[in-house]
């Protein structure tokens, strides 16, 4: 009996387990062969466009930008989309596209199959709802949301200059227990989603929303902490962040940025390369930001300020040689 069991286990191990992506490609390949409208030499080219990964939100998936782009798919897109839905047990399909180059970097996700792009998602017991075709949401930012959740902001007023649907606003309110959050956002679809998310999480009474460009709408002299969650750069609103800080006590800034790590060696030689900086470019950018904020605060608030480096958080790799980081700095007026 034992030898037989060992043999059976060996046989089972030798049977290949097909991933959902493998099953999907096989199903589409079988369909293309069956309909007979695509030459054999073109079938494999089309199969290369069948997605092998996707972002899932309930019954909706978002496939990569290059998926299902060939004009040939239009000949039988209904049948192909139905096969995808059946294989992956979903009802809606959307495709990524480059972020809209407008002033608020709105979503450019394209709905391929289904009635609407509204989805729900829960992160760390926080409920979010938004339309993927109109609003941005990055699952890759979960580490930063968890970091914010670990803060103690119970006696603090927070200003979020790029609130979106509330991906950082809600952790500040629900887990960090911020006294109040002033949320600035200029995408009307995101503002509506933010209102709904504040209500569904029962924290709408501790948040004020400012619709429009934060450079003209953000409150001044109110913040103990300011969040600047825009990438690739939030520098267009650095002065706004300075004005938002309390004049008498200052506070902490969390500055998001994408840093390119391919700086020429001539510039790298100027870096001390401290242990907390993985690449010299991170230190170069940190020094630039600290110096810039110290100068801006002294100019805008008519007194000397001291800006101190606290921490540089690596959120995620954004692309080859590009990293999404968050710089934490403390800004305090110098008492003469």
UniProtKB/TrEMBL annotation:
Gene Ontology biological-process entries: tRNA methylation; wybutosine biosynthetic process
Keyword Methyltransferase set for record: yes
EC number: 2.5.1.114
Gene Ontology CC annotations of this record: cytoplasm
Pathway participation: tRNA modification; wybutosine-tRNA(Phe) biosynthesis
SUPFAM superfamilies: S-adenosyl-L-methionine-dependent methyltransferases
Coiled-coil blocks: none
Catalysed transformations (reactions): 4-demethylwyosine(37) in tRNA(Phe) + S-adenosyl-L-methionine = 4-demethyl-7-[(3S)-3-amino-3-carboxypropyl]wyosine(37) in tRNA(Phe) + S-methyl-5'-thioadenosine + H(+)
GO molecular function per UniProt: tRNA 4-demethylwyosine alpha-amino-alpha-carboxypropyltransferase activity; tRNA methyltransferase activity
Protein name: tRNA(Phe) (4-demethylwyosine(37)-C(7)) aminocarboxypropyltransferase
Lineage: Eukaryota, Metazoa, Ecdysozoa, Arthropoda, Crustacea
